[in-house]
Amino acid sequence: MTPTTTRACWWHSPPFIWGAACTRPRPRPAHSTVAEAPLRREVALWHPDGRRVWRTAAGDWPAVSLDAGQPLEAALRATFGEIWPLHDGGHLFGQAGLIHAQALNDGLWSGEGAWSEVQPGPIPHARPWQRPGWPAQVNALADGLLKTVGLTRQGEVEWHSAHDLTATNTVPTEAGRAWLKVCETGQEAALSAHLGACHPGLLPPVLAADPARCALLTLDGGELLDSAADPQAWTQALERLAGFQRSADAAALAGLGAPGFPLTEMAECVDALLGETAALHTWGLAAETLTTLQDARPRIRAAFSDLHGHGLPNLPAHGDAHPRNALYSPARGAVWFDWSEAASAAHPFMDAGWFLAFALHPSREGLPVRQAGPDLPQRLVTAYLRALGAPDAAPLLWQALPLALLHRAAVYDRTFRTWTGTVPGVRPNYTPYYLRLAAREVARLT
């Protein structure tokens, strides 16, 4: 799966989309002309006060019916009116757990029943934005952040997307639309505040950041880069990325919690991961993919060694530098957002390699910029390497594409191998996603 393409979206999950915004496709027999029966899911519908839930006359939960491919939040609103999605009960992953949503007014629909104080059991490991009462809390949070910069909210905060790692909302202000992101930790808020102060043209304008409340408020930064047809928007994004890599204060980033991923250390981590056959099986990696990568281990080790031998130092990194984490507008040009995975030190090609692997993948041939001509890859690489001060390193950058993907797989394996979320048996599926991409790219290694 790929990230959402909604305008100026602060939330992304390249391989694996979370939350109530999405539906999991149901299998359909080939050439079937039989309409699928709607899915029926029970809903814990919370009163706007966040203390009561709706029960039917029989004391049961109300239900929502979903047509194939229908977004869950759309089905909830069609059934219950204005609601705030809290948790999808595992619907995205084919589970039929209890869905949680909060009504935004108590004059909803004509279903028989009443508000009850008999509540459901709590969601295991629920984040603040997955609990009843969050709509009022997030409006108050937005008000407090806006007050620090002399702005006021011009309407209600609106839900945009949410999953176990983060929640993203839009906030109307007199300065234009703002984006409020709340995370599990305050690290992204702290890093974004620092970068906004030290590199003001690098990211959308930061209105306010509150690491203690894990909250970040920024102005809209434009359209997602992958909707931009002009190659200059793309080369500018890479040039600004290289400028950040060269000029950012690594010690300051480390002091704000950004980890370091030195090239030699990551080469060892990648090799160790590829040798852990049992662990890779737990990620559901196909046998063919596993064989391809394990057979390529000597070439992968050699490629990491070649990259190290070239002499480019470890530098600050965005950490997830793909085109849907960049925005473009004529006023500001290309800017980068989602600094949640920023690193204080990594080889710069780990960022650039992921950008190129994402942008040039065959599945993205329909991107407007891909129609610019056959020289687009060369233009992107040349612009980046010139800005980085390494114009002679093009062959190594192309060879680094699979290394960048393997780097990401190893980082995510370290983060999510034993991770526990709110949906039983489900963890972010980033590691096998990047391993599959890497298996396709290892042919670059000679």
From TrEMBL:
Name this polypeptide is given: Phosphotransferase
> What InterPro entries does the annotation carry?
Kinase-like_dom_sf
GO MF annotations, alphabetized = transferase activity
Q: Which UniProt keywords apply?
A: Transferase
- Spell out the PROSITE patterns in the cross-references: PROKAR_LIPOPROTEIN
